[in-house]
Amino acid sequence: MPQRNIVEAINNALADEMESDPRVMVLGLDVGKLGGVFRTTSGLVERFGAERVVDTPLAEASIIGASLGLALAGMVPVAEIQFLGFTAQGFHQLGPQLGKYRQRSRGRYHCQVTVRAPFGGGIRSPEFHSDAVEAQFVQSPGIKVVMPSNPYDAKGLLIEAIRDPDPVLYCEPDRLYRAGRSEVPDGPYTVPFGKAAVVRQGEDVTLVAWSAAVELCMRAAEKLADEGVSATVLDLRTLVPLDVETLCAEVVKTGRCVIVHEAPLSAGFGAEISATLMEEVFYELDAPVARVAAYDVPFPAASLEDYYLPSMDRVLTAARRTMQS
Amino acid sequence: MALSKNRPVQGRRSVLLPDGTIASGAKSRMEEEFLLDALRWMMKSRLYDQRVIALQRQGQFGVFSPGTGQEASIIGSAMAVDPARDWMVPQYRELMATVHHGLPLEVITAQYLGKIAPGRIPDGVKVLPTQVSIAAQLPQATGLAWGLRLRGEDSVVITYIGDGGSSEGDFHEALNLAGVVRAPIVFFLQNNQWAISTSRRVQSATSSFALRAAGYGFEGVEVDGNDVMAVYDAACDAVQRARNGGGPSLIEAVTYRMSFHNTTDNPSRYQDPKEFEEARTRDPIERVQKFLAGLGLWDAKREAAWTEELREENEQALQHAAGAAAPRPEDVFANVYQEPPPRVLRQRSELVDGARG
Fold this sequence. Notes:
Chain A is of the alpha/beta class and 325 residues long. Chain A has 11 helices and 14 strands. In chain B, the strands form 2 sheets. In chain B, strands 1-7-8-4-3-2 form a 6-stranded parallel beta sheet, sandwiched between helices. A two-stranded antiparallel ribbon of chain B has the order 5-6. The A-B interface holds A 25, 51, 54, 56-57, 59, 61-62, 64-75, 77, 92-93, 96-97, 101-110, 141-142, 165-166, 194, 240-242, 244-245 and B 116-117, 119-123, 128-129, 133, 136, 138-148, 150-151, 153, 169-170, 172-174, 176-177, 180-181, 334-338, 341-344.
């Protein structure tokens, strides 16, 4: 089976969907000849032409707003926002406009729009490029929030997103873009939304994460195994819809939970998970739910990011403390 | 005033003057029968405003932004597009334009009454929902026009904005993108001199909003927005240009908001009554009536008869909307997702079961 990294998996998903559906188009900054700043759209303009792979003016609100209009015209736009932090300059077109359009039109219109955006720290990028603002969109009902962590899911979730009749925000873990290749089949396939993946099964503690934090949790689980602690790693894959059933089941199995995310702690999506566990399975917990997150300060200069982002040490410390309860 | 400098190259287009005479040398493609039709729609718009404002004061209608004073802009622009193939992307002060474009009056009325299913734009009607997030409709309209061209359709989009809305970033982004992709779109800017209480004078230092089109690489024209003949002509030119592959246009219709921003507003706190009285002398409806009277096509008797008929039409739509199904609690969850997530379905059950006691 072909081996692909996340960049190649995304590129392959876009090509497959553009091949099978002439309505699918890609638009955004530098997505044409350059192939995107991370090369996720490399080769697409040569293959599908400049009408379907469009370098747009540098203006996020119009990239997203025009995608809404393109969808109403019967196209299936896949918009790229160069970095998730820059959705701030088009936020109103994404959360409020795309998210509400079906409701505001009493169901007359829907918006089959995918907005792709890389995010996350660890690549020493300049200011604003690393911001993990995914939870802002969880507070925008109507938008699905998709957070792949590996090449197989990256392709399958992207195809699912493109085919979804409702708007999807698809956040790409830039730190893992080229972190390694794994099996990604040729040809279209989908990974359904709202189905969390147990990427490592353990017995003592459940580490819950999404996107690049899954990789950190996998490494932490290895270390914990050396200490005789058997950890489950649960990859939520999508924040909206949230797989409450698997989340609760996997936490109940171990009785302990550590949530790890790159967004700041307060009102991060970890708070939602923790609250959900309190509501659903409180009496089956053996320890308080722990959270390991970025601090409640703006993302610092790249030279400081290792101190800011959840670290292996912090995950291990949280897991060990949880085990002591 | 300094703002009078730097007029657009063409000057403000004008055909029908406030006194009901035709400007010297001016010609319009709007023939007399067509002008009668325009007058009927303009009167219908004003009568509707008057009726629903009265209802709102009695607590029987939602917050409403009247088009009073702007009927020539609203109707003249709507008459230039073809409901069968063109799309209309409104803001919120063009209600009768959307009705002219095929949206049944009872449907949009039902929206103001908080109805859900009865307020759904019928399939086939090429109108998008009203937009109160100022200027957000503009990038969407650009995308729609662009997409229709990509789909090979022979359609033009007309979208509405105001002088206040032109200050938004979305205005710039939408017009810029439309120019780049040469989208078949008409940006129809109603400069009614007010953004709630903020005067056009402090909205922008430009002497003309139409001038801005030059910065986006397409044509902008300024037209007397109280002159339905001139508005219609300018809009027809822009629609034709878009349909023929000539790309976007910006039309600035210079008009005056002869009412309040909406039913919560109180213009006496900020508006000079003299300015308002002056604006009344340029009423878009009266000048048409005067012109038609000069041709022997209009008199008090006809006005009374039309007023009666139009009030009855509006009343029927209002009653139809008032009698339409009331929203049910579960409509809170209607039309958000094609397939709602399990969590949302659970919340829906909680609400419905709770509502049933």
